[in-house]
Amino acid sequence: MLLVSVVGVSAFAFVSPALAGDANVTLRNPLCVTGATGNACVDSFTILITKILTFVTEVVGALAVLMLVVAGIFFVLAGANPENVNKAKQIALYAIIGLAIALAGRGLMTVVTSIISP
Questions:
Q1: In terms of Cα–Cα distance, which of 26, 31, 36 is closest to 49?
Q2: pTM of the model
Q3: Distance of alpha carbon 43 from its chain centroid, rounded?
Q4: DSSP structure string for 79-98
Q5: Residue 41 pairs with which residues in a beta bridge?
Q6: Separation between Cα atoms, residue 67 and residue 61, nearest integer Å
Q7: Per the count of CB atoms within 10 A, which of 28, 53, 76, 100 is most buried?
Q8: Helix segments in the chain, DSSP class H
């Protein structure tokens, strides 16, 4: 069994360079739209991180606005019930805190990108 595996591995070692053919293999960038240039092409780590954090910031911002609307609806429907008013205040507070964290993350990303970019 050991002899078969040694022969198989050694045969593959001699055949694989022949199968490789051309040594100049170029791989296309999977993060770049075909034929695109500029902002549509991600060709560095900083651009990739910037695009990811921009997307996350936009999603968190949209959710924060949605939660502020929900908090406003809770305020309107609370009436004289102090428990529902407190729930609405908590929703609004957490939405504002989430938005602040998202904006701070965006600012931190700008600072780090300016430090690590050439």
A1: 31
A2: 0.61
A3: 15
A4: TT-HHHHHHHHHHHHHHHHH
A5: 32
A6: 10
A7: 53
A8: 2-20, 45-78, 82-116
Half-sphere exposure of 55 (CA within 13 A, CB side): 5
Contact of 95 with 67, CB cutoff 8 Å: yes
Residue found under tokens 């050694």: 10
Indicate whether 118 pLDDT > 70. no
Instruction: Compute CA distances 115 → 45, 96, 109, 118, whole Å.
Output: 13, 29, 10, 8
- Cβ contacts of residue 89 below 8 Å, gap of 6+? 71
Give the count of beta carbons closer than 10 Å to the beta carbon of residue 88.
Answer: 19
Helix (H, G, I), strand (E, B) or coil at 41: strand
Q: Does the pLDDT of residue 72 top 90, yes or no?
A: yes
- List pLDDT tens digits, range 8-65: 555 555 555 555 555 677 766 666 766 656 666 777 777 788 888 888 888 988 999 9
pLDDT of 90 = 95
Answer for the pair 85, 75: CB distance below 8 angstroms, yes or no: yes
Site of tokens 């908090």: 71
